[in-house]
Amino acid sequence: MPDIPGPGSSGGGIPPGPVSPRGGTRPDSGPWAGAAGRLTGLGVSQGRTAGPVIRMAGPPRLPAPHAVTDPGAEAATVVKALGAVAADLNERAATTQGEAAEILEALAMIADDPMLREEAEGRARDGLDAPHALDAAFTRHREALAALGGYLAERAADLDDLKHRAVAFALGLPMPGLPAPGHPYVLVAEDLSPADTAGLGSDVLALVTERGGPTSHTAILARGRGLPAVVACKGIMDVPDGTVVGVDGTTGEIAVGLTQEEAAEAREREHAERARLAASTGPGRTADGHPVKLLLNVGSAADLRPGAEGVGLFRTEFLFLDRKQAPSFEEQVTAYAEVFRQAETVVVRTLDAGTDKPLPFLGLPEEPNPALGVRGLRVDRLLPDVLDTQLDAIAEAARATGAQAWVMAPMVTTIAEASGFARRARAKGIARVGVMVEVPAAALRARRLLQEVDFLSIGTNDLAQYTFAADRQHSALADLLDPRQPALLDLIAMCAQAGREAGKPVGVCGEAAGDPLLAPLLVGLGVTSLSMAPVCVPAVREALAGLTLEECRERALAALDQVW
After folding, report:
1. pLDDT(408) > 90
2. How many Cα neighbours within 13 Å face the side chain of 312?
């Protein structure tokens, strides 16, 4: 049996030489053997590069409060500051596309939120100067969000960035932004806001943050841009500016203290490797010809790229995120049809609202634990018209384009939910209906689910979270969230076996699908398709092409036997 690497880790200090958590180069060998030390974080965007560290400047310092003589003027400054932040984010969104633009638009909507503005204005009229009124209002909203835990606690960091930008404007200072040293560099920060990540220039070689998680906006946008990225790397902010480091976005290793020559060689190797992978074409298959569909995760037509065999996850919630009112039937038809025209196969996920994607127009009540509450298909229990309109729009877009739409529901937990969803979708004229497997209950009942639906799609991010009772954003629990955990692989294998018995496809659309080290394991377990960020497709295609199906199965069996 092949040797399967052990679990990842995330820790501080500069240890003398830990084994790579994902099977990468050991520090006492390979191109980075001369490194003075090592840091280890969580690799969230594959690739390897090297360059000098530039740390991102901290937020503006809030001066001591001053006596207010004109509360109305302070309130007016509050309004101007929030408006300036919203305008700046909307301008940035207009110059980007895809997920980056959608995230920036959603942040602009938060800055323009009437409740936030009214609270900050009220504090100013009560006697606080504008910077402190903004600070107090954002802080209260942040505390409320952080108290909800889970995904929403991660989004609380986004409020910090908005606060810093608004306070800087009120103080007459430039809004916080990215460094511009005039040469390529590795950007290091405590955390990165979506606005900063979306605005990265071509001189940024890689991202390393001290905080953050595998599903943070930093991770999502870094993968979309093809930048190596490591998060939850304790001690990285202690590395002085100018220090040359090597960054491995797959293993999460940071080699500290390289020479300029070593860094240049690392960049040349990475450039050559990317060029080689980019030249690869054709469908996904193992060395002995076993087919594995390689599909894309997209939020809109702007995310589509050549080189894949279709779309395995069309995240329709990005159409809803920045809306104060639900998009109309006509708007939805237009958006879906645009994707259908450009891809051979499209698997549409119906609205996945809740947790990290709160949608104001839904008016959902606050919950003590949103990750275990009304999210995904469960929204239909309160607002069935939303799903009916979306299914009608998907069906109409498919008719208008001649496409055969595949549609799946998120957060399905029972046979009754799957059966009800399938009946409604088929009644609208949708031929291929499936469900997401994101909770253990669905995996345990996979055989029965496939009597109701045509396919399954496994979301490994959520399935890991719910299987191990581990918050996806908790860097200290990274080993529990590793998709090579045997218990998680058991659930995936259970779904794949059910698919083989039923003669129906079972795919994976979580982050594991785009990892070239993990993709062969998933294929060995019996998964029939892998859906990922476009930038991941070439490396996964290459990894599968280098192994026979039997070798993939051997690796999968070895992984299942690991003791964690």
Report:
1. yes
2. 31
- DSSP-assigned letter for residue 357: B
* For residue 79, pLDDT beyond 80: yes
The residues near 164 (Cβ < 8 Å, ≥ 6 apart) are 59, 60, 175, 176
Q: Are 313 and 279 in contact (CB under 8 A)?
A: no
Q: Which of 233, 495, 509, 552 is catalytic?
A: 509
Residue 453, token pair as written in the block: 């639906």
Instruction: Strand 204-209: give its sheet, edge to edge.
Output: 37-40, 253-256, 244-248, 48-55, 185-189, 204-209, 229-231, 42-45
pLDDT of 453 strictly over 80: yes
**Average pLDDT, integer, range 414-437:** 97
Residue entry with tokens 């280098």: 546
Instruction: Kindly name the residue from 141, 217, 233, 552 that is annotated as catalytic.
Output: 217
Residue 217: active-site member: yes
User: What is the average pLDDT across 481-488?
Assistant: 89
Residues 284 and 291: beta-carbon distance below 8 Å: yes
pLDDT in tens, 332-366: 999 999 999 999 899 999 998 765 555 667 777 77
d(CA 294, CA 455): 16
Q: Residue 22 in 3-state DSSP?
A: coil
More confident residue, 123 or 147: 123
Query: In the prediction, which pLDDT does 19 show?
Result: 30
For residue 217, pLDDT over 80 is answered with no
Structure-block tokens of residue 378: 């469960």
| pLDDT for 148 | 55
For the question of residue 509 being annotated catalytic, the response is: yes
DSSP class of 170: H
C-alpha 242/C-alpha 229 separation (Å) is 18
Structure tokens at 137: 């209002």
> What's the CA gap between 445 and 449, in Å, rounded?
6
* Predicted pLDDT of residue 398: 96
Domains of the chain and any CATH numbers: 37-57+179-277 (3.50.30.10), 71-170 (1.10.274.10), 281-560 (3.20.20.60)
Alpha-carbon distance of 380 to 564, in angstroms, equals: 38
CA torsion through residues 117, 118, 121, 123, sign: negative
DSSP 62: P
Which residues neighbour 448 within 8 Å (Cβ) at sequence distance 6 or greater? 415
